[in-house]
Design goal:
With about 375 residues, this protein is α+β, with helices and mostly antiparallel strands. About 35% of the residues lie in helices and about 20% in strands. It contains eleven helices and 14 strands. An eight-stranded mixed beta sheet has the order 2-5-6-7-8-9-10-11. It is globular and about 55 Å long. The two termini are about 35 Å apart. The N terminus and C terminus are likely disordered.
């Protein structure tokens, strides 16, 4: 019934419902924190052709940064190497050694991932008080990333500490769940929008790392997933730790009302927006724009997602319903790499599907530089 309702809504508003017949469940591997950091990638890299990994990463850098851009970001990455904290530095070094990819390129790609996510996240509470969390990961490197997306069960002492979705060679997490604790997704926060601003962000990120001891925006969720145990402590830490790039942290918990969007500046939270089911706010939708401001006219995923969620209704919402919303254009786009669904109260719900429904994106930037989101 939910899918029929969504189809009817998409017909009314002129959208075409997403198809589910070209999705692939992401492979799942163990990332063992008891293994020395320089060898943690070994168990995962062995499942991939090293030459293909070299090709994917090399092509991405060449296609999207061009020669001058590669030289600049490799210089920044090389300088950043000594100040990247443990264990991330050793993990990157181990990945570079295991794959034959230059360390500077590995660091460069980790920096790139901080700024190029164009995503949609939804956190919702059903009538039973269960919190559901879903996300679309949209990216400019869609051709490469669909081939290196995987789910990681991060273990310590032989037990799963948390589960996340990431990319081969990426030390951070933009999607993750602490069983019976909380879930986190990360969406980039839009700036004024030009390529010049993008390079300014890269330089400011380096300054923040070098001078301020800031964390990568994607390292912080990993630290929170490893060290915190509940929704409120996660919100506190995600709100106060200095980070290198402005982002949104979307967080779901295990108790009624535990859902929030943390709007981050580099130094601290600018706003924390909570679920309020008693007053009708039983779900939150975050894309790449501050929730109190209108989204860009040429990138309005928020309003369609809100309409679809309201059509589903709190009495029908669950992981499948959120998946359907995230599978409906324009919420779902050709740049969507994967869709993840989870509920920390029921860890078995965690699933990531790599999306091949649309043709791959050809350009990482919109045609008009004024329309760029980062």
């Amino acid at each position: 019934m939910c899918r029929i309702l969504i189809l009817m809504v998409t017909m009314v508003f002129g959208y075409v419902a997403g198809q589910h017949n070209h999705t692939v469940v992401a492979p799942r591997y163990t990332f063992d924190l008891d293994t020395p950091p320089e060898h943690r990638w070994d168990n995962i890299v062995k499942n991939y052709d090293k030459k293909l990994l070299q090709h994917f990463i090399g092509k991405t850098l060449n296609d999207y940064l061009q020669k001058d851009g590669i030289n600049i970001i490799e210089t920044i990455a090389g300088a950043a190497d000594p100040i990247i904290p443990s264990p991330y530095r050793e993990e990157m070094e181990g990945f570079a050694k295991a794959t034959g990819i230059k360390l500077a390129d590995v660091i460069a790609l980790n920096l790139e991932y901080e700024f190029r996510t164009f995503c949609t996240s939804i956190v919702a509470q059903d009538l039973n008080g269960q919190i559901w969390h879903g996300r679309n990961m949209d990216y400019g490197f869609v051709d490469m990333l669909r081939n290196i997306t995987f789910v990681s069960d991060v273990t310590k002492g032989g037990k799963v500490l948390y589960t996340g979705t990431s990319f081969v060679g990426y030390s951070g997490f933009l999607t993750g769940m602490k069983p019976h604790g909380f879930s986190i997704t990360v969406d980039a926060r839009s700036s004024s929008g030009s390529k010049t601003d993008w390079w300014k962000n890269i330089l400011e990120a380096y300054n923040a790392l070098f001078l301020g001891g800031a964390s990568f925006a994607s390292f912080l969720p990993r630290e929170v997933l490893e060290q915190e145990t509940n929704f409120h402590d996660a919100i506190e830490r995600l709100s106060t730790r200095q980070i290198v790039a402005p982002v949104y942290y979307i967080v779901g918990g295990v108790n009624p009302g535990e859902g929030a969007v943390v709007t981050r500046d580099r130094v601290k939270a600018k706003d924390v927006w909570y679920l309020d089911p008693d007053n009708g706010r039983w779900f939150l939708v975050e894309t790449n724009y501050d929730h109190w401001l209108p989204p860009r006219k040429n990138d309005n995923r928020r309003d369609p997602a809100n309409r679809l969620m309201n059509d589903v209704g709190q009495d029908k919402v669950d992981g499948n319903a959120i998946y359907d919303v995230l599978s409906t254009p324009p919420v779902y786009r050709s740049a969507t790499v994967y869709t993840s669904i989870m509920s920390a109260a029921n860890p078995a719900t965690y699933e990531t599907r790599t999306r091949y429904d649309f043709s791959p994106t050809l350009q990482p930037w919109p045609a008009n530089d004024d329309d760029i989101s980062i």
